[in-house]
Amino acid sequence: MLVSKIFFFFFQYHEDADGQLFTPLLVASKNGHDKIVSHLISKYNIDLEMEGITKADGYLVKRACAMWCAASKRSSLTENY
User: Fold this and answer.
1) Is 56 in contact with 30 (CB distance < 8 Å)?
2) Which long-range contacts (CB under 8 A, 24 or more apart) does 30-33 make?
3) What is d(CA 1, CA 79) in angstroms, rounded to the nearest whole number?
4) Contact at 8 Å (CB) between 29 and 50?
5) Around 76, how many Cα atoms within 13 Å sit in the side-chain half-sphere?
6) Which DSSP category does 12 fall into?
7) What is the pLDDT of residues 18-54, one digit of tens each?
8) Which of 3, 21, 50, 54 has minimal Cβ neighbours within 10 Å of its Cβ?
């Protein structure tokens, strides 16, 4: 039961009061949590192309993927690209 709840959480979209629509991967990418991003990708095989809606510079940005979120915060995830 717990495994199915965890799986459901990682692969579903979540919405907050500001209108942001996100996955755990998008949140981890946006906040520069490189180890969490690596863990999510390697352990759960999460789709890197999942898009969400996130805030950047006070605006809601639609169709933001994990790499865009990481780049918007200049995460070390984007240093090799």
Assistant:
1) no
2) 30/54, 30/69, 30/70, 30/72, 30/73, 31/73, 32/70, 32/73, 32/75, 32/76, 32/77
3) 38
4) no
5) 6
6) S
7) 888 888 888 888 888 889 888 888 887 788 888 999 8
8) 3
Residue 75 CA to residue 26 CA, distance in Å, equals: 12
Contact 49, 13 (CB under 8 A): no
Q: Is the pLDDT of residue 69 over 60?
A: yes
Q: Which residue has the tokens 């070390």?
A: 76
> What pLDDT sits at residue 72?
79
Beta carbons within 8 Å of 62's beta carbon, 6+ residues apart: 51, 53
Cβ contact 52:20 at 8 Å: yes
The runs of H, that is alpha helices, within the chain are 2-11, 24-30, 34-44, 66-72
